[in-house]
């Protein structure tokens, strides 16, 4: 049974081929993103395609997939803002995702970004390699005793809260569905605006939806403490990059760590070291000494990739072979 993988990298092949020993599917790995330009590469009669965060499953793309006989779209990620689920439903295509795969991988990366920024280890690393052991410019701040605001306390946000509580931080959260266990553990839920006003560090762990695009915009930044640190490992368009850049220029935002970026599909997961990057916004962001950018790598651990391959292949098998489908994976 053929499965076409889009946006496939060497590590995807490694983990999926290993998992495929259980199933014996015929995987075809394409490096390119799925979009209108390439959807015709899917051969007629292909039952399943497997996609990632920057593949664009618009109504137009889904209509072509349906005409080619595709029955299953398997997202090998948790977020699904890039798929037109109504179009999939209208064509009777089943859509599944990996609802949870090592939420700690993403939470720990958010913490890594925070610790890099507050202790400037990225600068220290380069400096000592040049035998410069001076401490000037490396002054950091303690996380202990700071107020950390967490937006979204699902699987990843919960893991992040637990780590921050362990650091001795005061943890405030906003989520329309507060988590009782977290509250018992010491997390205090407050309205969104109050979390913004109180937080020394703000970390985003909610999904991107049509309602919360640019959740962090000029108005939100205005409400934040001067000197705030903002971490986004969720989805790029939760931040209005232009407004955040203004916030950095004015010094209102003291540190920014982003693993996601609103225009990331043109950049991330590619080696562009010899290319001229036309995106001035990311170039400006990367020019700030107090900004750390990673290229959507928060999920990228052994444990997470193994779980992604396991759950995705199991879902494809279940959906294509009429078996009962595991709880939580179906979107349409
Ligand atoms: P989840 O579904 O377990 O939790 C999301 C939480 O956000 C829920 O509790 C929900 O009530 C809350 N929420 C929804 N809208 C909100 C809003 N406007 N304000 C505050 N809270 C809101 O999702 P999970 O697994 O924790 O993942 C969160 C996000 O992390 C994903 O949607 C995805 O965008 C991102 N992600 C990033 C990865 C990376 O490698 N950088 C990897 C995996 C996920």
Automatic annotation (TrEMBL):
<dbReference type="InterPro" id="IPR006139">
    <property type="entry name" value="D-isomer_2_OHA_DH_cat_dom"/>
</dbReference>
<dbReference type="InterPro" id="IPR058205">
    <property type="entry name" value="D-LDH-like"/>
</dbReference>
<keyword id="KW-0560">Oxidoreductase</keyword>
<feature type="domain" description="D-isomer specific 2-hydroxyacid dehydrogenase NAD-binding">
    <location>
        <begin position="111"/>
        <end position="298"/>
    </location>
</feature>
<dbReference type="InterPro" id="IPR029752">
    <property type="entry name" value="D-isomer_DH_CS1"/>
</dbReference>
<keyword id="KW-0520">NAD</keyword>
<dbReference type="Pfam" id="PF02826">
    <property type="entry name" value="2-Hacid_dh_C"/>
</dbReference>
<feature type="domain" description="D-isomer specific 2-hydroxyacid dehydrogenase catalytic">
    <location>
        <begin position="3"/>
        <end position="326"/>
    </location>
</feature>
<dbReference type="InterPro" id="IPR006140">
    <property type="entry name" value="D-isomer_DH_NAD-bd"/>
</dbReference>
<dbReference type="InterPro" id="IPR036291">
    <property type="entry name" value="NAD(P)-bd_dom_sf"/>
</dbReference>
<dbReference type="Pfam" id="PF00389">
    <property type="entry name" value="2-Hacid_dh"/>
</dbReference>
<protein>
    <submittedName>
        <fullName>2-hydroxyacid dehydrogenase</fullName>
    </submittedName>
</protein>
<dbReference type="InterPro" id="IPR029753">
    <property type="entry name" value="D-isomer_DH_CS"/>
</dbReference>
<dbReference type="GO" id="GO:0008720">
    <property type="term" value="F:D-lactate dehydrogenase (NAD+) activity"/>
</dbReference>
<comment type="similarity">
    <text>Belongs to the D-isomer specific 2-hydroxyacid dehydrogenase family.</text>
</comment>
<dbReference type="GO" id="GO:0051287">
    <property type="term" value="F:NAD binding"/>
</dbReference>
């Amino acid at each position: 049974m053929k499965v076409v993988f889009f946006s496939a990298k060497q590590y995807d092949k490694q983990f999926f081929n290993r998992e495929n020993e259980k199933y014996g599917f015929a995987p075809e790995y394409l490096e390119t993103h799925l979009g209108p330009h390439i959807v015709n590469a899917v051969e007629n009669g292909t039952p399943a395609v497997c996609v990632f965060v920057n593949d664009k499953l618009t109504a137009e793309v889904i209509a072509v997939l349906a005409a080619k006989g595709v029955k299953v779209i398997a997202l090998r990620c948790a977020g699904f803002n890039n798929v037109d689920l109504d179009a999939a439903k209208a064509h009777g295509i089943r859509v599944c995702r990996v609802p949870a795969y090592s939420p700690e991988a993403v939470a720990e990366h958010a913490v890594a970004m925070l610790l890099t920024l507050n202790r400037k280890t990225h600068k220290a690393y380069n400096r000592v390699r040049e035998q410069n052991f001076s401490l000037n410019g490396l002054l950091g701040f303690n996380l202990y005793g700071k107020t950390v605001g967490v937006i979204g306390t699902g699987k990843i946000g919960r893991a992040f809260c637990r780590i921050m509580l362990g650091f001795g931080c005061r943890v405030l959260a906003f989520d329309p569905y507060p988590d009782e266990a977290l509250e018992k553990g010491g997390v205090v839920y407050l309205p969104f605006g109050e979390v913004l006003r109180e937080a020394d560090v703000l970390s985003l762990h909610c999904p991107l939806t049509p309602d919360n695009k640019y959740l962090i915009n000029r108005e939100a930044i205005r409400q934040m403490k001067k000197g705030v640190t903002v971490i986004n490992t969720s989805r790029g368009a939760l931040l209005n990059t232009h407004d955040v850049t203004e916030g950095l220029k004015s010094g209102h935002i003291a540190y920014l760590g982003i693993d996601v970026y609103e225009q990331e599909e043109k950049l991330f997961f590619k080696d562009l070291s010899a290319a001229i990057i036309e995106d001035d916004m990311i170039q400006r962001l990367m020019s700030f000494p107090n900004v750390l950018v990673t290229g959507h790598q928060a999920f990228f651990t052994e444990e997470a990739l193994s779980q992604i391959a396991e759950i995705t292949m199991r879902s494809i098998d279940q959906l294509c072979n009429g078996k009962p489908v595991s709880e939580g994976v179906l979107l349409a």
